[in-house]
């Protein structure tokens, strides 16, 4: 892996699947995992094997079919979890155990009724135990976003000594500002002894709508893995959206950070996940929403018809969308109407367009969106159009 390669760790099938009411069965998970592997993700977190027989089976089946990506299973810092995960991952070409524990004072006090030293001991034991099964062990410091940086650095250092290859720094509650999260990653890069032996990973939740911004700030400050889900799905407000971080890095080449993702598959994957999970994607969702490449106001439509780049920073084909859409509404201008009319077979003269446009506005005021059938109807009913055609 080169220094400027950012590993994409997809957790659609684990953290993403924690969306209430969206549980997938093993067959559905296998189909999605196959596509994620083709998409080029580096790691697929396939589930939490100890949590249920279904999750165990999914991790096992996904391990059998994935060809390129590392397959990862989540555990708590509990021996039985780790042993069960190792068993579920036994067919994986590249297995990874993802183990960890809450490190913020809130988690230590309320969840574990413990203290900082005892938590370090549990973390070290868990990493060492996981290491007895697999070479690749990722340690997560849950609620790292609200964990004191000195203590976080200490526990990360001990996890590396115990054999962790990746250190996951989750902003579990989606609390951090991008500047804080970036500073946290920088602090760990500069203060953890042995940090060169491990990769720092961003795992950001979206409670304040900052998951994508925080992950990008993390990699700018030295992290080299982003944990994310297709469409940003996940518990509460969700996780970092895979399609967003990948396209941000692609569209800002001066950051000098690449991924291995085949971006032309992004739209298809988004549709697949939305369909299988039964979660509708909001139309204005960045990159993959139905309106992400649709233009409806006259000024924008005129610009896009003249040159797409006037109002689009991404070529829709780069993310698997066939074309930009010129949507006809009452806010559309003559340029858009002429363009759409031409697409359905009418080459209108200036005079004809003036008349058709008047009728179009009357129609569009009554209907939210004017479709191809409506265009035929509007044009065929125009007096001037008929006169010229029959002349
Ligand atoms: O958000 C989080 O802290 C997690 C960990 C379990 C990795 O999902
Ligand atoms: Zn999470």
TrEMBL record:
Pathway: Amino-acid biosynthesis; L-leucine biosynthesis; L-leucine from 3-methyl-2-oxobutanoate: step 1/4
Keyword hit for Transferase: yes
EC class of the enzyme, as a word: transferase
InterPro entries hit by this protein: 2-IPM_HCS-like, AIPM/Hcit_synth_CS, Aldolase_TIM, LeuA/HCS_post-cat, PYR_CT
Record has Amino-acid biosynthesis as a keyword: yes
Family matches, as CDD domains: DRE_TIM_IPMS
The entry's keywords: Acyltransferase, Amino-acid biosynthesis, Branched-chain amino acid biosynthesis, Leucine biosynthesis, Manganese, Transferase
GO molecular function, one term: 2-isopropylmalate synthase activity
Matches recorded under PROSITE patterns: AIPM_HOMOCIT_SYNTH_1 (PS00815), AIPM_HOMOCIT_SYNTH_2 (PS00816), PYR_CT (PS50991)
Domain Pyruvate carboxyltransferase: 6-267
Protein EC: 2.3.3.13
PANTHER family: 2-ISOPROPYLMALATE SYNTHASE 1, CHLOROPLASTIC-RELATED, HOMOCITRATE SYNTHASE-RELATED
UniProt record similarity statement: Belongs to the alpha-IPM synthase/homocitrate synthase family. LeuA type 1 subfamily.
Protein name: 2-isopropylmalate synthase
Organism of provenance: Gaetbulibacter aestuarii
Lineage: Bacteria, Pseudomonadati, Bacteroidota, Flavobacteriia, Flavobacteriales
């Amino acid at each position: 892996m080169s220094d400027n390669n950012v590993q994409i760790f997809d957790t659609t099938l684990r953290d993403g699947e924690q969306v209430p009411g969206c549980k997938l069965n093993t067959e559905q998970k296998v189909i999605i995992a196959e596509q994620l592997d083709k998409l080029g993700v580096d790691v697929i977190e396939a589930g939490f094997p100890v949590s249920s027989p279904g999750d165990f089976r999914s991790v096992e089946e996904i391990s059998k079919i994935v060809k390129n990506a590392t397959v990862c299973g989540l555990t708590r810092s509990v021996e039985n979890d780790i042993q069960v995960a190792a068993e579920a991952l036994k067919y994986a070409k590249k297995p990874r155990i993802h183990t960890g524990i809450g490190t913020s004072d809130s988690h230590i006090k309320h969840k574990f009724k413990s203290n900082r030293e005892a938590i370090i001991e549990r973390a070290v034991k868990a990493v060492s135990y996981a290491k007895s099964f697999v070479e690749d062990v990722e340690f997560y410091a849950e609620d790292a976003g609200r964990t004191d940086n000195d203590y976080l650095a200490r526990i990360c250092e001990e996890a590396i000594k115990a054999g962790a290859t990746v250190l996951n720094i989750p902003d579990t509650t989606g609390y951090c500002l991008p500047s804080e999260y970036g500073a946290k990653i920088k602090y760990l890069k500069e203060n953890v002894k042995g940090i060169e032996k491990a990769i720092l990973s961003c795992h950001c939740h979206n409670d304040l709508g900052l998951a994508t911004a925080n992950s990008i700030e993390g990699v700018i400050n030295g992290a080299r893995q982003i944990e994310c889900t297709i469409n940003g799905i996940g518990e509460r407000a969700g996780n970092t959206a895979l399609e967003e971080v990948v396209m941000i890095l692609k569209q800002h080449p001066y950051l000098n950070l690449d991924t291995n993702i085949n971006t032309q598959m992004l739209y298809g994957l988004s549709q697949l996940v939305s369909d299988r999970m039964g979660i509708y994607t909001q139309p204005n969702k960045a990159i993959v929403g139905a309106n992400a490449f649709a233009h409806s106001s006259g000024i924008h439509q005129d610009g896009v018809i003249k040159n797409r780049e006037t109002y689009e920073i991404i070529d829709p084909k780069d993310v698997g969308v066939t074309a930009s859409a010129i949507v006809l509404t009452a806010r559309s201008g003559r340029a858009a109407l002429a363009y759409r009319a031409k697409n359905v077979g009418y080459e209108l003269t200036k005079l004809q367009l003036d008349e058709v446009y008047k009728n179009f506005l009357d129609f569009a005021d009554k209907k939210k969106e004017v479709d191809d059938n409506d265009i035929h109807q509007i044009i065929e009913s125009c007096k001037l159009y008929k006169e010229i055609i029959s002349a």
